[in-house]
Amino acid sequence: MSAEFIPPAKPIIGDEERAAVDRVMRSGMVAQGPEVAAFEQEFGDVVLSGRTAVAVNSGTSGLHLGLLAAGIGPGDEVIVPSFTFAATANSVALTGATPVFADIEPDYFCLDADSVRAAITSRTKAIMPVHLYGHPANVDALRAVADEHGLHLFEDAAQAHLATWRGERVGTFGDFAMFSLYPTKNMTSGEGGMVACATDQLARMVRLLRNQGMERQYANEVVGFNARMTDIHAAIGRVQLTKVEGWTKTRQQNAAFLDQHLEGVAVPAVAEHATHVYHQYTIKVDAAERDGIVGALREEHKIGTGVYYPIPNHQLSSLTRFAERLTLPVTQQVAGEVISLPVHPSLTEADLERIVAAVNATVRAGS
Question: Is the pTM of this model over 0.90?
């Protein structure tokens, strides 16, 4: 009997999540209601050390509304990495501001403070690092640059639930931070996002913007959106929130096994002050061999992988207008080298052994 395919990611939805959805459906209150309010409170307590959380319908909405609530708009510039999902830069562009791309650190894949400093202009208003793959950005260095130039610091924490820097939770450093609750993230609400807010004023503005500009029905204060989370999604998220700490420990254990047994590849580095939560377990290989390795793992060994992100944002046709004649050498190099291996909590010991054997054999065959 042939081995079963090991997917690169696997959402875990069980009986408790289904029961929570049924409870909401029976209640008759399926739009934003008590489940959303409870989820916000619990998320703030579990993930954000008590910081206020505001639920929205997607991570991208969270970034967009957070930026708007923080006063970002036309004429402003926000420095972001190019090596990330396009939603980071898209959210800046959607406010009418300009995303300015900076390079990344080669080991941790997050914004490089020196590159950020070089990208600052008189129009720069903020720096928005991405805690990529579950590894925190260097908050110390980026905060120093922000303070030196009087800039805001925002966080794209879409992939970094429970990650820490110097023992402090990601999402508690910036004026706001966004967490994604998409199905493949470390926890999910089916679809959705959370905005962590440093002040009551910013949290109130995000709430207004997500609900057509209203806090009270028909008393519209600003021009807003419909970016509300439903109680159905919140009910799923509340159950997932009770499990994410255990799942995170399993991801870290799986990563430790891969670290110990993989050969011939550069395994993920972890900074001294960082706690990595391994949304992705991302290795680096020779760029000339990357596509062959990915294909062999899929076709010969039935192991799925991810290549995030083969085209840097500043080279996407949708965003090149913001990056004329820009060169980001580390971003360009890393984009050709990375492969993300399965690390999710559903993996068995046998799965991990298969992954290691397959990667080691494939890399040896290509060398």
Answer: yes
